[in-house]
Design brief:
Layout (H helix, E strand, L loop, with lengths): L16 H10 L3 H14 L3 E3 L7 H9 L1 H5 L2 H29 L10 H4 L28 H10 L5 H12 L11 H6 L9 H12 L11 H10 L8 H10 L1 H5 L3 H8 L3 H12 L21 E6 L2 E6 L7 E3 L1 H5 L8 H37 L1 H6 L9 H8 L3 H7 L4 E4 L2 E4 L7 E3 L5 E3 H13 L9 H10 L6 H10 L5 H4 L4
Parallel strand pairs: 2-5
Antiparallel strand pairs: 1-4, 2-3, 5-6, 7-8
Length: 503
């Protein structure tokens, strides 16, 4: 094959490490960003956290971007050497002063440093006997249902045999309080040589059922609700009717067959309402009262405040960590030195500059997108959800002159604190729905109207999806019945049959 030279013209996108880092920081949440910053501080000796009271932090970062030009000056190299020498002299003098005051000049050969210096200061104290600092901030998770039941079982003075059976039963309890395994499966988990009978397991289970929360370790909701009814005083109004309803007609209650309940219980409408009111005081999921889940708090990335007739957007300082380049370590980098230590410091310095620039770019993009949202959704901040305007990512990208993928990344897991609550950025982006007069309406606004109509409906005659579509059409919003059903299900609102309640 004959070799030849060809000239071609083309375009290609090269993902530099700096660009990859900037893209990765864009899509990180506040918690993930703090972890990323902490990891950078631990791995890069040139980075250090900037104090909130340090007014020169931004100036420091700006000066860092011009570091390549400053490194070429011989005068700054000489100044860096003098700074380093002065710092070393200060350290040596301070250490010599401390040593002369506290440590003798001649130490015995077999002496230990701990014999001279105990390591305690005025602001610290030795740890407890178990090695744990009593003042250390510790995150403790909540107790789960199983731990709550084991604690009560330990106080029940059970025999070793019954305690082992109780442990097997407690291990089979789900988070909602019901058993996930049958009695036969529980017996198979016990040693075969014990030859445990089902009656023994049933007896221990009845004991656990009366633990707190009442009705736990039940096989079905009927059993749990009957146990809760048994704890009520005999003179409770409508107790007998409620027990009969739960014992024999719980399926009719679940399917809301009101006519069947009236006929079988031989009650009037008003009397059945009293019975249902008593049943609603019971807990069909007793295990849900005890939960080991800890609350997760959302840290807003931006604050939106009203100032006179305008809305102001500002970054949350706690959600935007500030870092800077350590000026002393940066001064130790010599431009003409090719040693391994100098090359490592030069590489760390360049990575620190990239990281600071990526953080600044992320904050600028976040502020631009938030300002765009507030400017576009001004009616929402002033009048509520029903005044939300349609907005898609493409429109936001065109307004801030960025790519749509960038807007998608910066709006993921980012939150905005407003006088109306804390919302995710993506909440303000919704599709368009055409109105009768040719205008456009936001899907979020339609969902808010559906929620308002359902909240104002008569519980005895709830609005169907078709009726909701008709009401919205009268208001000028042309939306189909299936669209109303889709929005209703997205808001976790039951259908009209399931929302119907007896007055």
């Amino acid at each position: 094959m004959k070799q030849s030279l060809q000239l071609r013209l083309g375009q290609s996108l090269t993902m530099t490490p700096q660009l990859q880092q900037a893209i990765r920081l864009l899509q990180l949440s506040t918690l993930e960003l703090h972890m990323e910053v902490q990891q950078a501080l631990d791995s890069n000796l040139m980075l250090e956290p900037a104090d909130d009271t340090d007014d020169g932090a931004e100036e420091n970062e700006t000066d860092v971007d011009k570091g390549e030009q400053s490194e070429t000056a011989e005068a700054e190299t000489a100044q860096a050497d003098s700074v380093r020498d002065a710092a070393e002299r200060d350290v040596n003098e301070s250490s010599t002063t401390t040593s002369n005051e506290d440590i003798p000049k001649d130490l015995p050969v077999d002496s230990d440093w701990g014999d001279i210096y105990d390591g305690t200061t005025s602001y610290s104290a030795p740890a407890d006997e178990d090695g744990r600092d009593a003042w250390e901030n510790q995150t403790t998770g909540g107790r789960n249902l199983q731990d709550h039941l084991r604690e009560q079982a330990s106080l029940a003075r059970l025999s070793d045999r019954d305690a082992a059976i109780a442990e097997a039963i407690i291990d089979s309890v789900r988070d909602d309080g019901y058993l996930c395994n049958g009695l036969d499966d529980i017996r198979s988990a016990l040693p075969e040589e014990w030859q445990v009978e089902l009656d023994e397991i049933e007896a221990v289970r009845h004991l656990i059922q009366r633990f707190d929360p009442l009705g736990v370790a039940s096989l079905d909701p009927r059993e749990a609700l009957l146990l809760q009814l048994d704890t009520l005083t005999p003179d409770t109004p409508w107790l007998a009717e409620a027990r009969l309803l739960v014992d024999q007609h719980l399926d009719l209650l679940a399917t809301r067959q009101t006519a069947q309940l009236l006929r079988r219980l031989k009650l009037r409408q008003e009397e059945l309402s009293e019975v249902l009111a008593l049943v609603r005081t019971l807990d069909p999921r007793p295990g849900s009262q005890i939960s080991d889940s800890t609350a997760e708090y959302v840290v807003p990335d931006v604050f939106v405040r009203r100032e006179k007739d305008d809305w102001r957007v500002e970054l949350n300082p706690e959600a935007a960590p500030r870092v800077r380049v350590n000026s002393y370590y940066a001064s130790l980098v010599r431009r003409a030195d090719n040693s391994q230590d100098n090359s490592t410091m030069r590489q760390h310095l360049q990575e620190a500059r990239w990281f600071i620039k990526s953080l600044r770019s992320r904050n600028d993009t976040l502020l631009k997108v938030a300002t765009c949202i507030v400017r576009h959704q001004r009616d929402f901040f002033e009048h509520g959800e029903e005044a939300m305007k349609p907005l898609v990512l493409r429109e936001g990208a065109e307004e801030v002159e960025m790519h749509e993928s960038t807007i998608s990344r910066i709006t993921t897991s980012k939150y905005m604190y407003t006088p109306r609550g804390t919302f995710e950025f993506k909440y303000f982006f919704s599709s368009h729905v055409h109105t009768v007069d040719g205008d456009e309406c936001s899907a979020t606004s339609i969902r808010a109207r559906i929620r308002r109509l359902i909240g104002e409906e008569d519980s005895a005659k709830p609005l169907s999806d078709s009726r909701l579509a008709e009401i919205l059409k009268d208001e000028g919003i042309n939306v189909a019945r299936r669209t109303v059903a889709k929005y209703r299900e997205a808001m976790s609102i039951a259908s009209s049959n399931e929302r119907k309640r007896i007055a």
